[in-house]
Amino acid sequence: MIKDIIIIGGGPAGYEAALYGARYGGNITLIEDHKIGGTCLNYGCIPTKTLIERGALYNKMMHASEMGIHNDHVELDYESMQNQKAKIISDLAKGIMGQLKKEKVNYVEGFAKVENNKTVSVTLNDGSTSRFLGDAIVLATGSKSIKPNIKGIENERILTSKDILEMKRLPVSITIVGGGVIGMEFASMLNHMGVNVSVVEYEKNILPTIDSSISKRLKSLCQQAGIDIHTGSKVIGFESLSSDMEEMEYKDGSKVNKGIRTVFIEKEKEVHIDSEYVLLSVGRMGVWDQETIENIGIAHNNRFIQVDTNYETSVDGIYAIGDVNGLSLLAHAAYNQGRQLMGYLLRNHDIHRPYIPSCIFTDPEIGSIGLSEEEAKEKDIKFKSQKTLYGASGKAMAMNATTGFIKSLISEEGKIIGLHILGAHSTDLIHYGIIAMEGGLTIHQLQDMVFAHPTLGELFSDHVHSYYTF
């Protein structure tokens, strides 16, 4: 019988598992060597969305005359934004610690090393060592940015997303290497704040894992907004620039003539972009102690720890949840895995792999769940597809947010197998698709539902009614 559980890592997967493990009657020890909340709270989801929201508001105010509002002086105070971001992170961290204390989770600060499938040693912050015994050990150690083997990769002007979030002032210009989710979110945010942004992406489309109709439209919109995008381009090196670089000026009038050159191959030609900084965003890999992994024999594929359908590793009694297993590098997926694993270990619950939505906070936002059109065709699944434009919505018109569309894929049985939304508040609207897909609802059942008018949610109703041939 499992009772004592040791969880290593205090990010979304780890602290959610700790809370639910305690609620399910387990004796839980949670070990964290950095900050509670992990990457998501400290260097990912929360700080980025805080700055994205403020950048979007600044951009909206700069274009407020389109809605009959005139303001000749709009000033961006980045230092104040950073202070607000820090307070939000601090408040949320205090909230998590309060929950852990309430549930009587044994929270330990220190670096954990797994000795075997029952024992974990921890080097505490004061230098001393403690050992903990458990019936099960859970690895929830998160992920980190990948650093590819490219000439000049050690240049001090190459930053990670964490580095960008901790900058004291905005750069004049930046080249983002990698047009995936993180890269494009930063591209939108920094562009809104007045930074000159270029994106270099290896694949033929930005956001290559989502439905191409969405990624192609977003690329066009980003280019219209002034973001320089190069797809199908391979970065081959970075070079330092100093006095040869054209002088750039900050908003406060100070000047800079130091930067970095990004060299890449585009359409079989060598080209380059000069900028003050580079943001490297080419993927992530799991975080683990290599010596521990090898000594114990936990299987991995060099990027992520491999797990079975119950999140158990190749070593009995050791489990891996969240980013470290690579199943989904999303905080909400990590929360779910933490809850599921504790239900499985302490309540004998079956583990159900639910549909996981993807939310991308670009401008406009993207919400996506299920199969893309390309995936459905690759799997030889027959489907019908429709699009509904945001411009058809009275609420969208009132909001001056008519850019975007809803697209779905419907199976022969009349059920949604893919839903993709580009537009304002799409990261909220996508949850209609989750309920429909998890509930196995048919188009006819969805058509029987009444949505309030005028709302953006009504767009979903209009969309399902476009399938009148079922």
What is the element layout, followed by pairings?
Elements: E1 4-8, H1 12-23, E2 27-32, H2 38-43, H3 45-62, H4 78-102, E3 106-114, E4 119-124, E5 129-133, E6 136-139, E7 143-145, E8 158-159, H5 161-165, E9 173-177, H6 181-192, E10 196-200, H7 212-224, E11 228-230, E12 233-241, E13 248-249, E14 255-256, E15 259-266, E16 269-275, E17 277-280, E18 284-286, H8 290-296, E19 318-320, H9 331-347, E20 358-360, E21 366-370, H10 373-378, E22 383-389, H11 394-398, E23 405-411, E24 416-422, H12 426-438, H13 443-447, H14 457-465
Parallel strand pairs: 1-2, 1-6, 2-3, 6-19, 8-17, 9-10, 9-17, 10-11
Antiparallel strand pairs: 3-4, 4-5, 7-18, 12-15, 13-14, 15-16, 20-21, 21-24, 22-23, 23-24
Helix pairs in contact: 1-9, 3-4, 3-6
